[in-house]
Amino acid sequence: MELMEPISLDTIANELHLEAMASPSKRAARTVQGGTGHALRQTVIALCAGTDLSDHEGPDEATLQVLKGRVRITRPQSDTLAETVVDMGEILLVPRTFHGLRAVNDAVILLTVSMAEAADNARPPAAESRPLTSTPQTPLSTPQEPPSGVA
To answer: Which among 38, 71, 133, 140 could bridge 34 via Cys, Cβ 3.0 to 4.6 Å?
Structure first.
């Protein structure tokens, strides 16, 4: 059984911000949950103002939550470049298409990525599988009628 231990995103954000400021790349990251063999991965990423995450293909499903600062997401759209600014406290569904990210000012984000396909491929087959039944079940919250003749 896994112990439930809270993680302070504020503490991690502050640590990574300091690491990013000292780094030649002006960014730092740490996976805080999940990863290989898991269905979910959560990574905190700190970026100094003006730092880019170069254009890349989006994952199947991901969200980006800005913990500190402001970022700009860009993606090609026909002959123009569409952009969305995401502020502290906001969350955005990451485009599944080619896109980039730029820190408008010093920023820290929480990137949550669905790794379901990778986890399914890494997971051994279940030792026992039971077929699903199509027998309808009565919800517990549905009031039941008394049998005929019962008051």
So the answer is: 38
